[in-house]
Design brief:
The protein is of the alpha+beta class and 207 residues long. Helix content is 42%, strand content 31%. The N and C termini lie far apart (119 Å).
């Protein structure tokens, strides 16, 4: 019989007919892998959508070489949840404090700009040109009913000790309509490279 099969179908076909076909096993799902790796989490927290279940997986994964019993794992999960909630509370409080400070500064800025006919704020200043050129962003607000133009800017710089170091000045050939506010970048030339603080005054040349 075997010889007849070989002669009729060939050796390869006979092997294919006589060897049982192995049924490939289905690949495990992600859930099945997690359940096998972290069985205690699935026992303690059957609702897999809860923060407790997800935190349990994280705790066990982070302490992969530790052996937890049910009580220890529950305690570790609850501790982790409390710590994260405390972190969120601190972050919310810090954000609220930043918002309050930002609002206070905006209010203070508006009051400063509105105090005089020409409101002036030096938003920021820095030393460019190898640390010797005075540069600044200056906001001007015309609180009067008249046009203003050609603003003379005079600044005095000071060292960290409080000693006066350099005077810098220049004219900003720009104009502000009544009630208009604008911010300008100005270059007032060379100053002492040790300048750490500054005091500036601005006066309009034309009205």
């Amino acid at each position: 019989m075997g010889a007849n099969l070989v002669s009729r179908f060939g050796a390869t076909s006979v092997l294919a007919l006589t060897i049982p076909v192995a049924v490939a096993q289905a690949q495990p799902t992600e859930r099945e892998i997690l359940q096998q790796a972290f069985p205690l989490c699935f026992e303690l927290y059957t609702d897999e959508q809860t923060i407790e279940h997800k935190t349990c997986l994280e705790v066990v994964a982070r302490h992969v070489h530790s052996k937890f019993d049910r009580e220890q794992l529950t305690s570790a999960v609850n501790q982790q949840i409390r710590e994260r909630e405390a972190e969120r509370t601190r972050a919310r409080r810090a954000e609220a404090a930043r918002e309050r400070e930002s609002a206070r500064r905006r209010d203070e800025r508006s009051k400063t700009l509105a105090q005089k006919p020409l409101g002036v704020i030096v938003e920021r200043w820095w030393l460019g040109g190898f640390g010797t050129v005075f540069l600044a962003n200056v906001t001007l607000q015309n609180n009067s009913e008249k046009r203003m133009a050609d603003f003379r800017i005079a600044c005095q710089t000071y060292g960290n000790s409080g000693t006066a170091l350099s005077s810098a000045s220049g004219v900003l050939y720009e104009a502000l309509a009544p009630k208009q506010r604008r911010t300008f970048e100005v270059n007032l030339g060379a100053v002492n490279s040790q300048s750490a603080r500054v005091n500036c005054a601005v006066t309009p040349g034309k009205t």
